[in-house]
Amino acid sequence: MKLRNYDVVIVGAGVFGIWSASKLHNAGKRVAVVDFGGPAHVLASSGGESRVTRCSYGEDETYTEWAFRSISDWQAISAKTTTPIFHQVGVLRLHKENDESIKASKRLLAQYDIPFTTLSPSKLRDQFPVMQVRDDEAGFFEPQGGALMAKRSVQLLAANLAESGVTFLSGLVSPISIQQGHQGVLPSVETVDGQQLKAEQFVFACGPWLDQVCPDAMSGRLFITRQEVFFFATDVDTAGALPVWSDLPFYGFPSFEGRGFKVANDTHGHFINPDTEDRNASKKGEADARAYLHNRFPEFADAPLSETRVCQYENSSDGHFLMDRHPGFENVWLVGCGSGHGFKHGPAVGDHVLNLINRTSEPQEPFLLGSKGLQQDRIVL
Predict the structure, then answer these.
(1) Helix 100-111 vs helix 61-79: angle between axes, to the nearest 10 degrees?
(2) What is the Cα 64 distance to its own chain's centre?
């Protein structure tokens, strides 16, 4: 058995793992990243085409500040590519007049000097004629938001890290148990093919597999739901200069890089096993997406379906992330529960993981393991 020794071993090469690796490497740590399928592989929650980045989170100051702070990191890596990974087209939230969460978002964005504008029904119709807007609706627009090209951004960052000295390993990490500890410390992890990885610190950022790899801490605390995404072949000229939009429970994207008009339902689907779930979208999901298009974008309601994708959210009970020490190990950190809104925060999550490992910050609410219950009761907007 070959023993490898590092400062930090990160299990999982999704957005949380890869940004943690980046921040730790830039701080001078010897870092290894191990993943059974490679960065943003086909079953990963960080795979797929695009994710929303926006700063409006009602009264939640942490997520607002983290999303805003992360934008500069996304811009920086996007600027280094010929094909951008950040399409900064803005994010439009459609809402009823006098929506309390929008009022709270306005107050907090103003406090952080984050730009936003409000659009009346008439302005929405003038600016986005392809969109049907009712008289009791309004728009909340964040010009600094937009779309992150998910899989490509994670794989680009991984490639850059590999070139600069971060070790990437392919392997399925065996589950850890408290019995493996020595004086409250986990000495090493092992892959099923016999690689033994020793480190001072371990970060488990393995998305929907976090409960399988860390069962002592996570059993029953991870709620993995099926999420369907649909792409429709639409005429770019007809769509006009649409931004990313949020019209919950639906949200969507204009056609980026010829992919198609993306529509997704944020409603949590049934619980799944990410290893065995059928990745074919359902007829009901398509019918629901077309019904939404009929009401909001009627010109696209009968557009050809060009592509589908089935992914997952790995939800915590309350919708908040998990970033806390393993209860059985002083040197093991659990990082996950993106809960469908985590991708945009990747850079800030990496900063927080670095601070936890350097002990310049302590685990904090609402990310503590103890706050993650055994039944879902989501409170994050």
Answers:
(1) 60
(2) 15
> 71-107: per-residue pLDDT in tens?
999 999 999 999 999 999 999 999 998 899 999 999 9
Q: Retrieve residue 381's tokens.
A: 């907007």
Of 74, 280, 32, the C-alpha closest to 170 is: 32
What Cα–Cα distance (Å) separates residue 36 from each residue in 20, 190, 211, 258, 274? 18, 12, 16, 31, 13
Give dist(CA 38, CA 274) in Å, integer: 16
Which among 46, 44, 78, 43 has a CA at the least distance from the CA of 349? 46
The DSSP output letter for 217 is: H
User: What is d(CA 148, CA 78) in angstroms, rounded to the nearest whole number?
Assistant: 9
* CB of 24 closer than 8 Å to CB of 353: yes
pLDDT digit string (tens) for 25-38?
A: 999 999 999 999 99
**What pTM did the predictor assign?**
0.97
Q: Which domains does the chain have, with CATH numbers?
A: 1-87+146-221+316-381 (3.50.50.60)
